[in-house]
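Why do we care about 3D structure at all? Because function follows from shape, and shape follows, mostly, from sequence. That is the central idea of this module. The next example makes it concrete: a single protein chain, its amino acid sequence, and then its structure expressed as tokens.
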Amino acid sequence: MNNSSSTTPPQDTCSAATSRPAHAVDRMVVSCLNVLVIILGLFLAVSMALGIAFRVLFDAPLFGLEELVLMAAMWFYMLGAVLASHERSHLSADFVKAFAKNRRFRRGVKILSTAISLGICACFFTWSMSLVLWAIERGQITPVFGIPLYVSQASFVVASLLMLVYLVRDLVLDIDAFRQPVSPRPEQPSHNNP
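And the structure:
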């Protein structure tokens, strides 16, 4: 059954590097992340508004709100980074396109860039694990609600682990693209038709 619509679906970033079950798991994870990011974003907005309102209207802060906002913000930012990594929409300084016209060279640079990102993310994962294990060992908790600090620090571990998965996927896709023959550029249509 061919169902066409006026909008095109987003580019499938997983099909070349993963199997159908892995792709289904990926879609499920991304759906859950989207829901969590929306919930956390709403919580942060409402919490900040309430915090400001209580300070201005009642001249009294909401006790402990900062702890909850900090934890939610850490998870919000880290899960947002995972979504950006999934979509390959994270910030990058891709100046190679400006001076390199050789598409094979640009593909090679993309592989190098992804490999460097993968190495940095692996270091971040290692550091994050050490941080969380240290917090568990020390039994650190927040002063007001007594929430263990590793609850917020775990966002670093989860994010770096998921970003590692997506960077491995990206590296596989980049290597696959590098192996493909470089096709000649399609000719630009002429706008001078009578």
